[in-house]
Amino acid sequence: MQTETEILQAAAPLLLEWFRANQRDLPWRKNRTFYTALVAEIMLQQTRVEAVKERYVAFLEKFPTEKELALASEDEVMKAWEGLGYYTRARNLQKAAKTLFEEGIPRTWVGVKSLAGVGDYTAGALSSIALGLKEPAVDGNVIRILTRLLADGSVVGDAVKRKFTELLRAVYPDSTADFCEGLMELGAIVCVPNGAPFCEKCPWAGLCRAHLAGEEERFPVRAEKKARKVEYLDVFVLVCGGRYALKKREKGLLKGLWEFPNRVAACPPPYPPPREGACREGAPAEGACREGAPAEGACREGAPAEGALEKGAVLLAKKTAKHIFTHVEWRMTGYLIAVEEPAPVFVWATAEEIEKSYAIPSAFGAFTEWVK
Fold first, then answer.
1. Fewer C-beta neighbours within 10 Å, C or N terminus of the chain?
2. How far apart are CA 58 and CA 65, in angstroms?
3. What is the pLDDT along the chain (372 residues), one digit of tens a residue?
4. Which helix (H) or strand (E) holds 261?
5. At 111, which CATH number?
6. Dist CA 14 CA 69 (whole Å)
């Protein structure tokens, strides 16, 4: 029986041949530099390829080299990143660009790993793709295809990642970029994560232990996922004279981005009936607009201050939405409210100004539809 190393030695040239004949036409594979590879890899972290393609091109049009990105304001970078999510990546990318601009391109895996926002996988990808170093990049895609190829039933974790990193390092060919991208490509379009893999298209079909045993979907073996935490929010889209209230998020998820005033709800919907005199849809409220609002004291830091929604507020619309982060799910109730005076605790901007200058994360996308 072949050893795991022998299987990978036989698999490597088959993968290279397959990749060169079947690779997708992706914008980051053209005119590549270390900087453009860095932008692509950071953008692709936890994001689908289709969601990144156009945004990658637009981002490089605005910041064609590390110099332009390093010297940009944070608000400019956040606006260019708007909609891609996981905004800490954008801040880290700018920090990394500043390092490249000030210190030059790193030449070792350790140097690449020292860049802001670069972990083991991204360091391996950049080292292989942009520097020609034989440094593996092992992520979920690579773990999936290798556990199937080798019929490895170990529960996926750090030990499995370390094992596959060493196995790949031992067989890495000289064509480091094609091999690294070939592994990614095979996992993306053939040995797919959801549903049955397309084994009839796989260059490894004759080597793959899982396929030969008819057990492809048994692998990889994963530990049971923890349930996401659910948080309930009330979101207030306040409009006054064609301008909308915004505030910058000071901490936690989406820190540093612009958002509509919001607060953590005291209890999940359905809320208790509104108190007598609370605003009804289309009618002015006495005091703060309270329809469906959480109990007194439920506001978190940065939520509308008491009295921010003053007498004369009119509830124009209401709807619910949810947004799923990696470990947290937001379930939101949104209120479109017209107010007579712009409260000074907020920044007030027109729809055109918001479109041009203010990065509002996609978590609030259901409510940005009200901004017209």
1. N
2. 13
3. 899 999 999 999 999 999 999 999 999 999 999 999 999 999 999 889 999 999 999 999 999 999 999 999 999 999 999 989 889 999 999 999 999 999 999 999 999 999 999 999 999 999 999 999 999 999 999 999 999 999 999 999 999 999 999 999 999 999 999 999 999 999 999 999 988 999 999 999 999 999 999 999 999 999 988 889 999 999 999 999 999 999 999 888 888 899 999 999 866 665 443 343 333 333 333 333 333 333 333 333 333 433 445 567 999 999 999 999 988 999 999 999 999 999 999 999 999 999 999 999 999 999 999 999
4. none
5. 1.10.340.30
6. 39
> Does residue 41 carry a catalytic annotation?
yes
Q: 234 phi and psi, to 5 degrees?
A: -105, 130
Do 8 and 147 lie in one domain? The reply is: yes
User: DSSP assignment, residue 193?
Assistant: S
Active-site residue (options: 41, 66, 82, 259): 41
SS3 228: coil
The Cβ-side half-sphere exposure at 358, using a 13 Å CA radius, reads: 23
State the pTM of this model.
0.79
Q: Does 305 lie in the same domain as 233?
A: yes
